[in-house]
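idk why but the lab printer keeps eating my pages so im just putting this in chat instead. protein + 2-phosphoglycolic acid:
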Amino acid sequence: MNRRYRKTIIAGNWKMNKTPSETKAFAEQFKAILPKTKWCDIVVCVPTVDLSAAVRAFKDSRIAVGAENVYFEKSGAYTGEISADMLADLGVRYVIVGHSERRALFGETDEIVNKKVLAALEAGLNPIICVGESLAQREMGVTMELIALQVKSALAGVSAEQMRRCVIAYEPIWAIGTGKTATGEQAAEVCTYIRSLIRAQYGARIARSVTIQYGGSMKGSNAHELLSHEDIDGGLIGGASLDPKALMEIVHAANQE
Ligand code: PGA
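predcted complex ->
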């Protein structure tokens, strides 16, 4: 983390978990244990049907609500899809784009990810753009090439001003939901590389202002070590974000320096 230049953001990603009633209950419990001091920004990304409940429940708090997906078209005959304007109008502030589960299970290509990033930015949302390699790709030694491809294509056509609103989440696929966390060094190496890619495209000032998160089995016990690295500015947390106490432990781990 480097609080001088950029925000530390702890973001939960509930995936396909919790009903609207459970969302309300989570919010009450989480707000009750929220520290008064602001160490970091907190975002809770929830399933589409839980968004209204989450926005309502977190309204009087400093916790921002995020969506887990968005469609890139503005409106029209796209049965079942949700536009960025719809999310923004609801009071949603962030949206996860290009999560590896959407890439692997729902056929999201780098081109689709780029369209979604642009649509989110245009609607005033802050995209959390996920990138990351599989175990096979890491073992083949192509991690950095793959990350460069994913980052550069996701950001095609994104202006310097818009870049300030983007969050990048480095999520090695082999660490997601497996309990296998990347070591601080492994995660930091890629996060530093991502910042260098942003620097090459947008210059040093913007690169140092961008929040780059790590995601993949982050929890209270490993968050402190991961966040102690200069280029790891927070986390995108799946499993541990479902329990208010477990998520709060990670928020507490951001209270360092
Ligand atoms: P995990 O998920 O924390 O359960 O590994 C992270 C993510 O997929 O965003």
